[in-house]
Design a protein that fits this description.
Elements: H1 2-30, H2 33-67, H3 77-89, H4 93-112, H5 116-124, H6 139-173, E1 177-180, E2 184-187, H7 189-216, H8 230-260, H9 264-293, H10 297-300, H11 302-315, E3 322-325, H12 341-344, H13 356-363, E4 369-370, E5 376-382, E6 385-393, E7 395-396, H14 404-410, E8 414-415, E9 417-425, E10 431-436, E11 441-442, E12 445-446, E13 453-454, E14 463-466, E15 476-480, E16 488-491, H15 504-514, H16 518-521, E17 530-533, H17 537-544, E18 549-550, E19 555-559, E20 562-573, E21 582-583, H18 584-588, E22 604-605, E23 607-617, E24 623-627, H19 633-641, E25 646-648, H20 654-659, H21 664-677, H22 682-687, E26 692-693, E27 712-716, E28 725-734, E29 748-753, E30 770-774, H23 784-793, H24 795-804, E31 810-813, E32 817-819, E33 826-834, E34 843-851, E35 854-858, H25 861-868, H26 899-923, H27 926-951
Parallel strand pairs: 3-30, 24-25
Antiparallel strand pairs: 1-2, 4-7, 5-6, 6-9, 8-13, 9-10, 10-11, 11-12, 14-17, 15-16, 18-20, 19-20, 20-23, 21-22, 23-24, 26-28, 27-28, 28-29, 29-30, 31-33, 32-33, 33-34, 34-35
Helix pairs in contact: 1-2, 1-15, 2-4, 2-6, 5-6, 6-7, 7-8, 8-9, 24-26, 26-27
């Protein structure tokens, strides 16, 4: 049995060692060993200190109680029973006297090691330079010092309670405390001193708690607004100071009683303290709130509401928001968009949330490739013009039921970037690619200008074994071969992407880590083999910077010849005084999160800064952290702790700067707060008569409880802005009161300047600027939901959409974009059609626009805009023709029409026939009605033929009468090596 136990202990120790050793290899390979050792040594130091404190106090308490035990002969049955217990415990007393403190101390210390960040921030804190409005303390006291002091006092209270109770039990067990039939409870001198000292220590710690509680009131979230309000300032804070002093006095009484043996005074003092806690800490504040504050709440709370507004806006970066009154118009006039060409040329028609399947059908090429369900929006300079781009990475999709060799040796990486213009499409409504194919080529470059292999991405396998010596027979499947050769090429990873597993010890360590004997025994592993794991960009950044909160979306970009994932990260706190707390999961959840993306943000905060921009190299997984807000106090503290891990943003290249953007999750948190905190007057804030809300996404199919509309990246020029900028935008509608009816009219439009500029190491002055358009309340500017309703209820639109649904085709509404142009708000929504069949994908067919209550619906954005702006909007657009990429200019007699023009003409004829038929029917003219029905039938036939020609359907001859017609199937469009 001792041998088995020893072997078990050794195995458990080796498994623990292997886990630590694997982490050491991983962090060292990435160059972040300092993070690993600092974290673990800090945890070890905290564990040791907490263990010695709890275990030592418990051991000392037990030891003192045992040493001070009285020696006497038992004089009654009760004491005789205790004597028997003592005799039974005596053989294992020494073990218990050591074992109990060790076990309890170990559990207590393990629980407190998770607070290592609070300890390091307290030691290395940097002052904020601003003070709170009540006590005049630097804000760093609340963010860094107060949590640490609370941790220390809370742990010491646990130590005193556990050690004190253990000592009392020992005194009782060995007769230091006796219960006698006539004399009641008899406490010996040693037990009396022991009890008095521990009671005094407990009360002194409680006094510390009361005193710190004065400052904690500024962090309260329980009142009408966050922070210390009138009752807190005039009742709670003073009474906590009184309670702290009272607790100290009662503690002194216990010390005196411990040596004098008179318990009357401390017992009375304790009773009075409890009464004071109830009266001063509960009843008195209740009376002040109920009978003084409530009747005059608006007047009495004005000062504290103003503090809350100011501190909340400061904590969330809303202090410098630029608010502009925007008297939006609802009347569409001719040439209204002539001055908005900077915005109209960049209107994005390609919806990144819908076209993933189109990218897959046109650019996937092999079943082992895959695109993310939601693509990203970026911008690239093409011939001197910045173009909004929908971009995706062709990632690897591994069959988890395949062999171990295929999962971890053969299929190791994806291949290439695929990008398309955001403001136009190609023939057939397909994406107009800027970079495509295998090998990749296009206006953005080719395989010769950047490294296309994707070893680290959002869909990468758990782990892969890669690399080999010179002359090694390549085993990694690289990409489909170009030309007529159908064989796939193979490749050997040549970077430094993971720990070496060339020796058997390392292989054994990782075989234990991943629970795989194949990793230990496979002949596909050589002396130069590396193991790649923890491969998602967000995961890598979170591991090397555990003190940061990572944004839920990482996006790829071609930067300096490499594909790099750009990740935003935040420093946060939940201890910023007078700031309203936000539940991050709630704030960042919208119609795109949860299903297609995973929310990385979690927990409750009341302070957030986008302090760090990070990049992860898609080829070798290297991570770079850049201090994006170098003056942020929390980041400065972490830079003191990890001085060599974060680079200044002055080292960022020009290409990297040009792809940095304002982060989505921060913007979502800010817009959630702005629903209330756009109001800066305390009186108006109290009245809540101008509260806003983020509208629900009108394009979703959920009738009730629809998720919020996501923000959209767009290149636009805001009213009053000198030059257009890549921006992140959102809208606001009135907040619905309880039981009230929703008014989906527009009250606000928010845009964050997301463009950092193309200059190396220099951030554009306008980056991060928040601009809020405040719309008038006396006009009804349609909100997104009302605009969607106008689209859906328009007779012409619904008729033509029903025609597009012919043949079981599915209609999909694209993202509904809101644009402040033409002196009002323009809504643009692309309409996609997807036919049936496994190879089908959505293609852009129509564009819906609205301005005020007018609706336009056409093949091209330009045509749709002209419909609502009296025949000529004056807009300059980039779609250059129909939604199918083909020109739709009127044809001269005898000229040949394109299929798109035939479809458009047929739909117009069908709509005209329906209108004329309804008019004839209303007059009772059945002859004309019959004629119009024949026209409708002919128009529908022509529309179906044109639609089939565009989508590539093969028109089959009519089947025999006895057979059932089989639906035609849409084949996949032909693709070659260059897409």
């Amino acid at each position: 049995m001792p041998t088995i136990i020893a072997i078990g202990v050794l195995v458990a120790a080796f498994v623990f060692f292997a886990s630590i050793y694997a982490d050491v290899l991983w962090f060292s390979q990435l160059g972040f060993a300092q993070v690993f050792w600092t974290e673990y040594l800090t945890k070890a130091a905290i564990f040791l200190a907490a263990f010695l404190l709890m275990g030592g106090a418990l051991w000392i308490s037990l030891r003192i109680a045992y040493k001070a035990r009285p020696v006497y002969a038992p004089d009654n049955a009760r004491q005789d029973n205790l004597q028997r217990y003592q005799s039974q415990l005596e053989p294992m007393r020494r073990l218990l006297m050591i074992g109990v403190p060790v076990v309890v101390g170990g559990f207590a210390a393990a629980a407190v090691t998770s607070q290592w960040k609070e300890v390091l921030l307290f030691i290395n804190q940097v002052p904020f330079g601003d003070v709170d409005p009540r006590f005049g303390m630097d804000l760093g006291f609340y963010v860094n010092t107060l949590p640490f002091l609370g941790l220390v006092i809370g742990y010491l209270i646990s130590v005193v309670l556990i050690a004190g109770i253990a000592g009392l039990l020992t005194h009782y067990l060995y007769g230091g405390i006796r219960i006698e039939e006539r004399g009641g409870i008899v406490i010996g001198k040693a037990a009396r001193i022991h009890t008095g000292v521990f009671a005094a220590l407990f009360l002194l710690l409680q006094a510390g708690n009361f005193w710190l509680g004065r400052f904690s009131t500024l962090l309260s979230q329980d009142g009408r607004v966050a922070g210390a309000l009138y009752t807190d300032v005039h009742a709670v804070i003073p009474t906590k100071a009184i309670l702290a002093i009272a607790a100290v006095l009662v503690a002194i009484l216990f010390i005196v009683a411990a040596f004098m043996g008179r318990w009357k005074l401390p017992i009375i003092g304790t009773a009075m303290l409890l009464v004071t806690v109830v009266v001063a800490g509960g009843i008195y504040p209740f009376i002040i709130q109920k009978y003084q504050v409530v009747p005059s709440e608006k007047n009495l709370e004005r000062e504290y509401i103003a503090d809350n507004i100011s501190m909340t806006r400061q904590a969330y970066g809303l202090s410098d928001i630029e608010v502009t009154s925007y008297p939006a118009k609802v009347n569409a006039v001719k040439d209204a968009l002539a001055k908005d060409s900077a915005t109209t040329t960049n209107i994005r028609l390609l919806d990144p949330n819908l076209v993933s399947s189109a990218f897959a059908q046109l650019q996937q090429f092999r079943t082992y490739y895959k695109f993310a369900p939601t693509l990203n929006v970026d911008r690239y300079a093409i011939d001197g013009k910045v173009e909004d781009t929908v971009i995706a990475v062709r990632e690897l999709s591994v069959d988890t039921t395949d062999s171990w060799v295929n999962q971890h040796i053969t299929y190791t990486h994806g291949y290439g970037i695929v990008a398309a213009y955001g403001n136009k499409v190609a023939s057939g409504g397909r994406p107009d690619f800027m970079l495509e194919g295998i090998p990749t080529e296009g206006v953005l470059g080719s395989d010769k200008t950047y490294e296309p292999r994707i070893y680290f991405g959002e869909l990468s396998p758990d782990y892969s074994v890669v690399g080999g010596p010179d002359g090694w027979d390549p085993r990694e499947l690289d990409r489909p071969q170009s030309g007529s050769d159908s064989a796939d090429t193979r490749n050997t990873f040549s970077g430094n992407g993971g720990p070496n597993v060339g020796n058997y010890f390392n292989r054994l360590v990782y075989a234990l880590k991943f629970g795989s004997t194949d990793l230990l025994l496979s002949d596909a592993i050589n002396a130069k083999s590396q193991i790649l794991y923890d491969r998602t960009p967000k995961e890598r950044v979170q591991k090397v910077a555990p003190y940061l909160t990572v944004d839920s979306n990482a996006y790829p970009a071609i930067i300096d010849g490499r594909v790099k994932w750009i990740v935003d990260a935040y420093t946060t706190s939940a201890n910023y005084p007078y700031s309203t707390a936000q539940q991050l999961e709630t704030a960042v959840t919208d119609s795109l999160t949860g299903g297609t993306r995973t929310n990385a943000l979690s927990g409750q905060v009341n302070y957030i800064r986008n302090s760090v921009k990070a990049t992860v190299d898609a080829y070798d997984g290297s991570v770079d952290l850049y201090a994006w807000e170098p003056d942020e106090p929390q980041l400065q503290a972490w830079q003191k702790i990890f001085p060599s891990t974060i680079k200044p943003y002055s080292q960022m290249s020009g290409e990297l700067m040009s792809h940095v953007r304002y982060p989505e999750d921060l913007f979502k948190v800010q817009r959630e707060l702005l629903g209330k905190y756009h109001v800066t007057s305390p009186d108006s804030f109290y009245d809540s008569n101008d509260a806003w809300a983020v509208p629900n996404d009108p394009t979703t199919q959920q009738a009730a409880n629809a998720p919020k509309q996501p923000p959209y990246y767009l290149s636009l020029k805001m009213p009053g802005q000198v030059k257009e900028a890549f921006s992140l935008t959102s809208t606001f509608i009135p907040q619905t009161s309880a039981g009230g009816q929703q008014r989906n009219v527009l009250f606000g439009f928010l845009a964050a300047d997301a463009d950092a500029g193309p200059e190396a190491g220099k951030k554009a002055d306008s980056y991060g600027k928040l601009r809020l358009l405040d719309l008038p309340r006396n006009t009804s500017i349609p909100g997104p939901g009302q605009a969607q309703q106008n689209f859906d209820s328009n007779t012409t639109v619904s008729t033509q959409l029903n025609l597009l649904r012919q043949g079981a085709s599915q209609l999909k509404n694209g993202n509904l974009l809101s644009l402040p142009v033409g002196g009002g708000i323009l809504y643009v929504q692309p309409v996609y059609i997807q036919s049936t069949g496994q190879t089908a994908y959505p293609t852009l067919r129509k564009v819906l626009v609205s301005f005020g209550d007018k609706v336009g619906f056409a093949d091209t954005l330009s045509e749709a805009l002209n419909q609502i702006f009296q025949g000529d909007s004056g807009a300059v657009t980039s779609d250059g023709g129909s939604g199918t990429g083909e020109t739709t200019k009127p044809t001269k007699p005898g000229a040949t029409q394109t299929e798109a023009q035939k479809l458009s003409q047929a739909l117009e004829d069908a709509n005209a026939a329906i209108q004329a038929g309804q008019a004839a029917l209303a007059k009772g003219d059945f002859a004309t009605y019959g004629t119009e029905q024949k026209k409708l039938e002919g128009a529908l036939t022509r529309a179906t033929e044109a639609q089939d020609a565009i989508t590539g359907k093969v028109l089959e001859p009519a089947p025999a009468p006895t057979e059932t017609p089989a639906p035609s199937e849409t084949p996949a469009p032909p693709v070659g090596g260059n897409g």
